[in-house]
Design a protein that fits this description.
By secondary structure, the protein is of the alpha/beta class. Helix content is about 30%, strand content about 15%. A 3-stranded parallel sheet has the order 2-1-3, with helices on one face. Strands 4-5-6 form a 3-stranded antiparallel sheet, with no helix packed on it. β1, α1 (about 15-20) and β2 (about 25-30) form a beta-alpha-beta unit. The two termini are about 25 Å apart.
């Protein structure tokens, strides 16, 4: 079951179109650089012309810093992201749900330049979806929880693996 097939928007920002070969997307913004990607997410958040999912991959963390073992660059990029996140959270509407996760980790402090961590957290915050304000960190890490959670937030019943994190 795809959001697009259900009549929802599925907007890819950054290299999402490439990752999924364009399948399932209703729109794409093929931008580069974390700051450009985050600006696009902020702009989409302010628009009221769509309903569905904005999916963004902050590839610089992996490509520019993790694979190159660039600890100081990674730290600086985290600070820039943290600054953006603080501002973004102030402007989130009651109907918005922010999910932060990854498909893998890439610790720049290890000797290897390969992906170093397979378990990553799923962080969620909302000002009002499903009557839930506040934040949630999953009891067990897993990207597979996101599909069911997004469907639940959009009011769609679906038989997907994982937990509906909004029900916790």
């Amino acid at each position: 079951m795809r959001l697009k097939e259900l009549g929802f928007d599925a907007i890819g920002v950054g290299k999402i179109r490439d990752i999924f070969n364009g399948r399932g997307l209703t729109a794409s913004q093929p931008l580069h650089g974390n700051q450009n990607l985050l600006a696009a997410v902020s702009n989409l958040s302010r628009e009221v012309t769509w309903r569905g999912l904005v999916f963004c991959n902050l590839v610089d963390f992996d490509m520019l810093y993790g694979h190159r073992n660039n600890v100081s660059g990674y730290a600086e990029e985290l600070l820039r992201f943290d600054e953006w996140l603080g501002e973004f959270l102030k402007t989130m509407g009651d109907e918005e749900l922010l999910i932060l996760t990854a498909d893998h980790g890439n610790d720049p402090t290890t000797q290897s330049t390969d992906h170093s961590r397979e378990q990553v957290p799923v962080l969620i915050t909302s000002n009002g979806i499903a009557g839930r304000g506040g934040n949630l960190v999953t009891p067990e890490p897993g990207l597979y929880h996101v599909g069911k959670t997004v469907l639940r937030a959009l009011g769609v019943d679906g038989d997907f693996p994982g937990l509906d994190l909004l029900a916790l």
